[in-house]
Specification:
The structure holds two protein chains of two kinds.
Chain A (H helix, E strand, L loop, with lengths): L27 H4 L13 E5 L11 E7 L2 E8 L7 H5 L7 H6 L6 H16 L5 H30 L3 H21 L8 E2 L2 E2 L5 H26 L2 H7 L7 H6 L4 H5 L7 H4 L20 H25 L18 E9 L2 E9 L7 E5 L1 H12 L5 H10 L4 H5 L1
Antiparallel strand pairs in A: 1-2, 2-3, 4-5, 6-7, 7-8
Chain B lengths: L4 H10 L6 E5 L3 E5 L5 H10 L6 E9 L4 E9 L4 E9 L4 E3 L8 H12 L2 E3 L26 H5 L2
Parallel strand pairs in B: 2-5, 6-7
Antiparallel strand pairs in B: 1-2, 3-4, 4-5
The chains are: A alpha+beta, B alpha/beta.
Chain lengths: 403, 154
């Protein structure tokens, strides 16, 4: 042959020692080649879930370090909704702080206002009329139903279900209609004020509540069947995100999240306020501590809320809807703590007064913040899809976490 | 609800916490003041004593005008009692983390440090929690917010 060069291949073709995956100079594509499971070289991937992810329930960013689909480490980044409610409260008169509290946990405004009103009343030593207490409790429970319905709807959305969200929002619309009737607002109520409530219940609102109660029992069972009776949903939540009793206590969990881990503590029963001592209700608890337990506890809480609303409507005492309090409140110097059971847990207000017309310091205990840090701690070892379920099951509201 | 103040004082004395001063505060409950240096020891003693304060309900700070007070709100599920532990730090002081004792303190400590200009020591992730860099410690009384006077006089 006159020309010995290769015509189709190149020099080095089929050399006796081809480069292998173990060779230091081997190309990356060869290193990743699936020539055997043991030789598969993988890298961790950092995934930014949020801040605009639909299942973060607000503006939450979760930094996930992933090994395939498994979470190796997770870190939550919050503060996107920080409005400085605690600082703003220091420059507002006591009556004006309620508007700020509404904007904390915007899904359950009544209970936010109530926590601040209770703390202010403790400092002022005001006797709240019985009817005002009952009205507050009534609208707290209606607001709790509205809040739990939002959680129920979006928790299903996290799992990939759609129908229950529409039904939940339909019922919530009726509840917001009732709350709008008495307060004039659908979400930022500013209804509970130190000393009582701003308006007495209207006859139209009473009729609307009666009408709501006629059908809601049936709808609630329908909701539970629609999502909880769905086998696909059950498989997504059972045994996922297990929080044992000791961990729940160590991380400061409260509310339904704590009760789903087997600790029977409810502010309404154990630190009673307003009309709760006069009501007959059960505190549901579950032992498993997984997402399913949290689902079951919240659904049962809704049944108990309906039960309480019935008692409150039937036993509503006559009287004034507010105590006689000064227009500009000046509580005597002192410190106090008041807590309410919000849908997310123990919502507390630690109030420091220096005797002036504005709070000296107002600490807003955000129950969802404590749930979030536990969520962060239990993420390692779970799957990305479960991350969504775990964070969803804690019922996080970022407005309250960031304040 | 309210623990017996004398028993709390005894439990702290048994753990050799010298600076502890337990008192009953009207409208609030039992408050124990300790020196910053002895705070982790005091919390450990309260957690392990027979009152079993194993739940940290909240952790926050108050600018008293002279210094920063850090308040630990403890609860015992075993005996259904609550109390507050309080210590004083100078402005810009060092907040020693108690997260190993109470993991609940992880985020609350970060918030207290950033909002009151404290440094955090012994914390696994001593970053800011709610605000970004260059934001001053907002909850200090010396940091004024725009329009506060205007809103007040409205």
């Amino acid at each position: 042959m006159s020309d010995p060069r290769e015509t189709v291949t190149h020099a080095g073709w089929l050399t006796p020692n081809p480069p292998t995956a173990q060779h230091p100079d081997a190309p990356l594509s060869l290193k990743r080649a699936p020539s055997g499971v043991d030789e598969l070289v993988t890298e961790h991937l950092v995934l930014n879930m949020g801040p605009q992810h639909p299942s973060t329930h607000g503006v939450l960013r979760v930094l996930l370090e992933l090994d395939g689909e498994e979470v190796v480490a997770g870190e939550t980044v919050i503060g996107y909704l920080h409005r400085g409610i605690e600082k703003l409260a220091e420059s507002r008169r006591y009556n004006a702080v309620g508007t700020l509290m509404d904007r904390g946990d915007y899904i359950s405004g009544i209970m936010n206002e109530l926590a601040f009103a209770l703390a202010t009343e403790k400092l002022l030593e005001v006797e709240v009329p019985r009817r005002a207490q009952w009205l507050r409790t009534l609208f707290s429970e209606l607001n709790r139903l509205a809040s739990h319905l939002v959680w129920y709807g979006t928790f299903g959305l996290d799992a990939g279900a759609m129908g229950q969200f529409l039904f939940a929002i339909r019922d919530r619309e009726n509840l917001l209609d009732i709350l709008e009737d008495v307060s004039g607002q659908r979400m930022m109520f500013n209804y509970v004020r130190p000393g009582g409530v701003v308006n007495d219940i209207t006859t139209t609102a009473e009729a609307k509540i009666r009408k709501f109660l006629e059908t809601f029992d049936m709808y609630l069972e329908e909701h539970d069947q629609l999502l909880g009776g769905n086998e696909i949903f059950q498989k997504r939540v059972k045994g996922v995100g297990v929080v044992d009793r000791a961990t729940a206590i160590a991380f400061g969990m409260t509310g339904a999240n704590l009760r789903a881990s087997g600790v029977s503590f409810d502010v309404r029963r154990d630190r009673p306020y307003d009309a709760y001592p006069e009501l007959d209700f059960d505190v549901p608890i579950a032992e498993a501590g997984d997402c399913w337990a949290r689902y079951v506890v919240r659904m049962e809480e809704m049944r108990q809320s309906v039960r309480m609303v019935r008692q409150l409507m039937d036993g509503m005492p006559e009287g004034e809807h507010t105590a006689k309090v000064a227009k500009v409140l000046r509580p005597p110097a002192g410190e106090t703590y008041a807590a309410v059971e919000s849908p997310r847990g123990e919502l507390g207000v630690y109030l420091v007064s220096d005797g002036s017309d504005t709070p000296y310091r107002m600490r807003y205990r955000p129950p969802a913040l404590y749930a979030l840090q536990l969520g962060e701690a239990i993420l390692p070892g779970t799957l990305i899809a479960d991350t969504v379920m775990i964070l969803g099951s804690f019922d996080l509201v970022l407005g309250e976490i960031d304040r | 609800m309210r623990p017996d103040a004398t028993r709390i004082a005894k439990a702290l004395e048994a753990a050799a916490i010298r600076s502890a001063a337990v008192e009953e505060v009207d409208k609030l409950g039992v408050v124990c003041r300790v020196d910053a240096a002895e705070l982790p020891g005091a919390l450990a003693a309260l957690k392990s004593c027979d009152h079993d304060f194993s739940f940290l309900a909240d952790l926050f700070a108050i600018d008293t005008g002279e210094a920063v007070d850090v308040v630990y709100h403890l609860r015992s599920f075993a005996r259904d009692e609550e109390m507050h532990v309080r210590m004083t730090l100078p402005y810009g002081g060092d907040l020693a983390s108690v997260w190993e004792l109470y993991p609940a303190a992880l985020m609350a400590e970060r918030e207290a440090a950033e909002m009151f200009g404290l440094t955090l020591s012994g914390h696994p992730n001593p970053k800011r929690l709610l605000t970004t860099d260059q934001v001053p410690p907002l909850l200090l009384k010396s940091v004024a917010i725009r329009g506060a006077e205007e809103v007040r006089n409205r």
